[in-house]
């Protein structure tokens, strides 16, 4: 992977200079945002990009080029820029051609969830989910969330070690989510986590494409079963206390189309759990790389009630699992911090790059549990701010508190040559995390 940073330029195009296919002149060579080294540690590259300017042309493994916004101020403004829309219909012909190989192929019914909508549709749809994820509801769920975390730790080996993805992080967020949205146990046990891979790009000629489309179809069938079950078994307490039931009732009353209903259930099932799974892994890896901070957090939880919450916020800032936002588009050629972006080109904001900006966070690469203020962008900002942020924060606090207190001596595993530097990071375009995290510990308390 090259780590050269290319600044947008206004100079006249030369014969061998890349040109915009829509007649907008010279384009900088895109910086590749993929590869094992980049996924393991993108922060040195992000630092060089921030220092060179706020907007850079980048390329993803699918071949799609995009304009990447880095730096806290630029990211914060872009996330609030009313000119930037999320609806895929705004993408130009070249983007749509390449995007057909990206997650959720264009023929899928799962396209029209909140991340792909603009007002007024976004406002109408978002209103249906907000009540289920208020801080008050998240706090009311905390005792049950602790029970779910303890049950998973109870199943870990008493001594030695375990894979904390297979044994904990891969299951904990989904079990919490099922409780929060009203997914019946008989349907929850049928959910295949492998279906979450539909958000990882697979090209049309890739040998894995048939398996990818099989996952997508299986997930669509599962969502149809969820909808049918909720329609046949409405919550006796009413749809206001059961988010899935509320969505089905909204569709039946004409407030959601069938595609909107399926897409919102898809977003809940996949986006509602995978980022938390990944965030648990990034937080644990960060703590394992900083054993002094791990010890302070473990030993201080009982004496300092606010420490765990502050630590979670700093760990979110330090290495967010949602690395990049999804696509945004200008409806017409527009200026973005001195760079002319053609209409329909994709614009993406790097949340991770923004969260390591020294101008906003002094000594941004330092892990500081006492950092204040800490207005990180790990959950986004503006109208697309993550509606489940309060629940995610509660889950992360419970997960870390449970693992650190019940697994004393938690440390990286040295079995079979395992170490933190050899971890395989998931190849997802937008996310950071690992699928396996072997650790050792003294005993299970």
UniProtKB/TrEMBL annotation:
Q: Which InterPro entries does the annotation name?
A: Cyt_P450, Cyt_P450_B, Cyt_P450_CS, Cyt_P450_sf
Query: Which positions make up the signal peptide?
Result: none
Q: What is this protein called?
A: Cytochrome P450
The record's region (Disordered) falls at 1-34
User: Entry's Pfam families?
Assistant: p450
Q: Which keywords belong to this entry?
A: Heme, Iron, Metal-binding, Monooxygenase, Oxidoreductase
Family membership: Belongs to the cytochrome P450 family.
Q: Does the keyword Cell inner membrane apply?
A: no
